[in-house]
Amino acid sequence: MFLWQYLTLLLLPITVQICKAQICEEFSDLDLSHAIIGTSLRTRLLLYTRDNGTCGTLVSHTDLSAHPRFNSSRPTTFIIHGYRPTGSPPVWMQKFTELLLARADLNVIVVDWNRGAANINYFKAVENTHKAADNLTAFIEMMQRHGASLSSIHMIGVSLGAHISGFVGAKLNGAIGRITALDPAGPQFTGTLPEDRLDPTDAQFVDVLHTDIDSLGFREPLGHIDFYANGGADQPGCPRTILSGGAYFKCDHQRSVLLFFDSFNGTCTSRAYPCTSYKDFLDGDCMSCARFGAAGCPVFGYDVIKWRDVLLTLGQTKTFFTTNTDPPFCRTNYRVEVMIWNEDLRFGYITVKLHSNGKEAVATIDHKASEFKKFTETTLLAQFDKDIQSVKEVSLKFSTGNALKSKYKLRVLRIRLTHLEREERPLCRYDILLQQDKEVSFRPVPCEESNF
């Protein structure tokens, strides 16, 4: 009995140390009562590395040497959330850290400023963004003293977090490497001066995604490159009426995070095209990528840093892309050129389907009625829901959208489909008769050079 007591006393300190080492710090979990009463800002920094990818370590604001897992020679990425009106933790935070660590050996720091963001008074949360930025700036300056390089820092800010990133970047004279802003908050920031919001001078490279410009997001460009997904407003699959409850308010805004997640998957990329407006983009007026050189148009998301150098020479670049309703969100783009034989002018919509080995991709060009004129090439942008590697068959359907009028026929002299993201020979078909609302399928052939 004496021996067991002795061993217990001997092993107790070791057991306590092991328990301490295994403690995982969690993001602050508040509730609506906190938001109603109001919270005072308290910024917590949770460190994740490949050694503790699912177990956060609370980092000291004053003594970085107390955290051996933090390696100053590694790049550091900060994830900064936005407004939390109910006080709940962001449901996407853990996945964010996992995706980042899967891509690179990083120090990932989750910035938990929930006590400060959880407040039904949005204006108070906005006020706290400046205080949170002061706190982060002081921490990064401490990182510098421990050998960290500002150029190796990447700040990813969501909503209000985007502007916090900008404030930090400005305080550090734009020396941090990159700021990624996911649907930066619009209310209280729209119409303000650059020093009162995110702007391109806040980092060496600033990339911005807009998904809710007609409500919670910021409408105008804020970075070296600004991506407008589906025009930057209504996202496919999100509720369109208030009857859907809370999802009506946050779905478009939160889609920015989900789209960024999708960009980590190298098998699915969203190519974005420079354009002055979403209308011109949908009309097929912005399919040129020549300004970006051999790399082509930028790919949205985590890897857009590969276009950094060329984008810095172009100033602010505004780009557009469309997405599917659900993951994988990426679409595949084709230029479709149609020339008809009909004597009379025709207006209508075209649906194109690509088939190969049991797979089918669909693109419906219906944002407006297209004009088809005899011996005049009509150029359309077709955005397919998936990529078909080797097209064996194509289906076409022409419609007018008006079931009450007499049925039209569209006599197609030639249709040509050109993949915008792969260098391959365009596909053609000659002399097709399309009866309104009836699908016609055919085997495409490689296009020939012609004079028409």
UniProtKB/TrEMBL annotation:
Membrane topology per record: Peripheral membrane protein
Family per similarity comment: Belongs to the AB hydrolase superfamily. Lipase family.
Catalytic activity: 1-hexadecanoyl-2-(9Z-octadecenoyl)-sn-glycero-3-phosphate + H2O = 2-(9Z-octadecenoyl)-sn-glycero-3-phosphate + hexadecanoate + H(+)
InterPro entries in the cross-refs: AB_hydrolase_fold (IPR029058), Lipase (IPR013818), Lipase_LIPH (IPR016272), Lipase_N (IPR033906), TAG_lipase (IPR000734)
Protein name: Lipase domain-containing protein
Organism: Zoarces viviparus (Viviparous eelpout)
One of the GO BP terms on file: lipid catabolic process
Lineage summary: Eukaryota, Metazoa, Chordata, Craniata, Vertebrata
Active-site feature positions: 159 (nucleophile), 183 (charge relay system), 253 (charge relay system)
General function of this protein: Hydrolyzes specifically phosphatidic acid (PA) to produce 2-acyl lysophosphatidic acid (LPA; a potent bioactive lipid mediator) and fatty acid. Does not hydrolyze other phospholipids, like phosphatidylserine (PS), phosphatidylcholine (PC) and phosphatidylethanolamine (PE) or triacylglycerol (TG).
SUPFAM superfamilies reported for this sequence: alpha/beta-Hydrolases
Signal peptide range: 1-21
GO CC terms, sorted: extracellular space; plasma membrane
Chief place where the protein resides: membrane
Binding site for Ca(2+): 197, 199, 202
Keywords: Calcium, Cell membrane, Disulfide bond, Glycoprotein, Hydrolase, Lipid degradation, Lipid metabolism, Membrane, Metal-binding, Secreted, Signal
GO molecular function, one term: heparin binding
Domain Lipase span(s) in chain numbering: 40-329
Compartment(s) of residence: Cell membrane; Secreted
A family per Pfam: Lipase
